[in-house]
Structure formats: C-alpha cells, structure tokens
Design goal:
Shape of chain A: globular
Domain HTH tetR-type (chains A, B): 10-70
Keywords (chains A, B): DNA-binding, Transcription, Transcription regulation
Distance between the termini of chain A: 58 Å
DNA-binding region (chains A, B): 33-52
Helix content of chain A: 55-70%
Largest interface: A-B, 41 and 39 residues
Protein name (chains A, B): TetR family transcriptional regulator
Number of helices of chain A: 9
Oligomer: homodimer
Structural class of chain A: mainly alpha
InterPro entries (chains A, B): Homeodomain-like_sf, HTH-type_TetR-like_transc_reg, HTH_TetR, MT1864/Rv1816-like_C, Tet_transcr_reg_TetR-rel_C_sf
Largest sheet of chain A: none
Chain lengths: 212, 212
Amino acid sequence: MTSANPASDNSLRERLIDVGVDLVTTDGPDALGLREIARRAGVSHGAPRRYFPTHRALLSAIARRGFAELGERIADVAGASGPPREQVAALARAYVGFALERRGMFELMFRHDLLNSEGEQEAADGPRLRESTVPLFRMLVERVARCGGSEEAGVTAAALWANLHGIAQLWRWGSLQLAMGGPAADGGAPDAELLDRLLSAALDAHLGPVTA
Amino acid sequence: MTSANPASDNSLRERLIDVGVDLVTTDGPDALGLREIARRAGVSHGAPRRYFPTHRALLSAIARRGFAELGERIADVAGASGPPREQVAALARAYVGFALERRGMFELMFRHDLLNSEGEQEAADGPRLRESTVPLFRMLVERVARCGGSEEAGVTAAALWANLHGIAQLWRWGSLQLAMGGPAADGGAPDAELLDRLLSAALDAHLGPVTA
DNA sequence: AGGGTCGCGTAGACACTGTCTACTCGCTGG
DNA sequence: CCAGCGAGTAGACAGTGTCTACGCGACCCT
C-alpha cells in the first residue's frame, strides 16, 4: 500500500530530510554522510535504509526540498506586478540570490553525481529530479515572452537562464571577482556592486537595454 | 600528450598525473580515488604521498593539466585572424567544446570541493589554481574590447563568460535540452542545432546582432 | 672500500564510509 | 494467544584517505 499521505505520516523519513537540509545549508554537500545524518537524527546508521534504498536517494530527497524552496521564491517574485522587464529582473535576482544565500543547497541541487540518475528513481515519490527545473523555466520563458523580443522567447529565456546560472556558479567559485577586480580589488567597488553590474549587464544583453 | 619528457626527473609524479588525466577523461572525477590512481600507476597506495601531501593536491595537479589544455585550445583559436566578432565566437565555441568533449576533466576543474583551497597550496609548483582562469579571461576581454561595444569590455566579457559557462554546465546536466525541447524533442531539431542556436543567442546578446 | 645518509617506495594500522544481512523489539489483527 | 509484520539495531564487509614505521638501493664522503 503506497500510503497516500505525503505529510508527516512517517516521522523519521521527514526528520532525516530535515536534518539533511540543515546540514547542507550549514556545512555543504560534503557533510551529508549517510551515517552523519542518521547520527544527528538520533537513529542508527541502518535506519535510513528503511525509507531510502540508497544514499543518493536520500540526497535526492534533500535536493528536492531545495528545488521546492527555489520554486517558492521564484513564484513569490513572479506574483508581483510591474513592467514585465522588471519582473524578469526580479526573477533573476531571486535565482542568483538563492544560489548565494543557500550556497550548500544550491551546490547539492546541481551535483548530479550525488543525486539519483536515470535508472534508479523513487518513481512513486514524484517526478524525476532533473525535471524539477522545468516549471521554473516555464515561468521565466513566460515573463521573457511578455518582454516582447522579436526572437523566439524560449531560446532567449534559456540563454538568460544559463547566464544567471553561470554567474552564480563562477561567483561562488570566486573567479569572477578575481577576473574583474584583479588580485587586489580597488576599494571603490565592493563585491556586491560588481555582482549587480554583472547582473544588469546580463539582463540588458538578453532583453535589450532598459529604454528599448 | 607528448610524453617525450626531456627531464623525466620525477617520473612517478608525472605518471600519477598522467594516469589521473586518463582516468578523469574516461570515468569522471568520481573515479579519481587516490588508491585507484596508485594502482593503475603500478605503485602502492602510500607512494603518491611522496609527491602530493594530500589527495586534493594530486587532484589539483590533474586539474591544472586541464586548465593548461583549455588554455592551449583558447590560444589556438585566438591566434586566427578575422573579424573580431568572429574571433570571440571561435573562443566561445572552443570553451563550450572543451566542456562537452572533455566532460570529466571540465567537471573536475570546477569542483572546488575536490581541489586545493586557499590555505593549502603547493606554492612552489605554480600559481594558485583558482587564478588559472585569469589569463584565459584576459584573452576574452581583449577580443571583446576589439568588438567595440560602448560599455566597459570587462563587464561584458565577464557576463559572456558566465553565459558560456552556464550553457556548458546546464547542457551537460541535460536541463537545457529538457527545457527547450520538451520531454520528447521535436525531430526537426537535433541537440546539436539547439546548442548552436543557444550559443548564437548568447553571442548576439552580449556583442549585439551580427550586422551591427 | 666501508659506512652513513637520504630519496623512494612498501606495508600495515586507523578511523571512517556506504551497503548488506541477521536479529530484536513492540504492536496489531485474526 | 500468538503469528506476523513494520521499524529500528547492530555487526560484518569492502573500500577510502591519512599516518607511521619500516626496507632498500644508490649515492657521497672520508
């Protein structure tokens, strides 16, 4: 019987995920050992196996929480009214903001070597993890289309998404700060302002300049 | 690749890196166990420690090879003559091409959790690994500046780099194919063409349309 | 030539990991 | 009442990275 109650019917299962979410946000994906999670949840190392057939399955469930939270953030700013261009900008800031605030979680979400891959899926638990980004992308392409570029909105949205993702990734790695600011950044430009200029440049590039 | 090593002063050190490069190219970063590398090099598991104080140091040396090869590719296409816009396009294709052909290596190069971080460096072996991208970025910003955008070339180049990096990353993850093509892609657009459209869109966005 | 030293690599131990399997409880249903 | 089952425990196993002690061969220096 697949218990239909998705809520808190199985307490340990949820507790394990909770512990994992806390752990990944504070210490990053490397801290997500199976035994460590079990330890912090107060159970023995074999207990998680009752709910997750493998370590990756547990990590996938944790990552799913991350996608859910990112989805909430995106949906929040997508609900705001305003000129479509500003909506896309808000989306972009939400995406990059999530990547920088929830560093560890964002890292996990795109570490596909740690997550469940094709063959092995929970199957009954929900859609495949890789498809978690699809609804988010749909929101983006919709807002981009409303900006009314002549080109196909799908391609533009995809390129913009890639740009945001790349900014988040390289910024976290520190390469962009290094490349733009030099080894010793000039004091006039704190990192936050650099990042903002970068984001504006990306938005201008894909959506056209503000006054267009 | 030419192992016509003039010095071969420290044969094992180079051999370990060679083995690592081969391994990461075929099986990805997860296959780069310290003991596995030693095994394939025909030495015991304690031997690498003579040359690399820690596992990460060895992986960093392997990744350095990757940055070197990427640098060669970039330098090759950067040497070609032609309109500046075409030079930037060639650079972009080289970057993404490297990421897709040398998947495992590219993955390793940006897995900073596996690589040496700030404190611990080989120090005498060369510049810090994180700075390996700086000269490559300089080439890009130079070519971008030659395209003569009104804006600051540094910011444009950084945004473009991030875009290329994001395309490479998300394409490898499969998200872009999923987002653009849908679950079952329309037969008219094979993946290669999708990728090309994406790349062109990014170049057009950051450099202005072709006829400008 | 003999003896000490040192680079280079081996081998074992240690703590730790993820997975697998046998086992023990406590509860519930017939 | 007791068989069965869900849920969690505990131990074993192979494998990992790091650390330490130990050989071994070549070299240099009186």
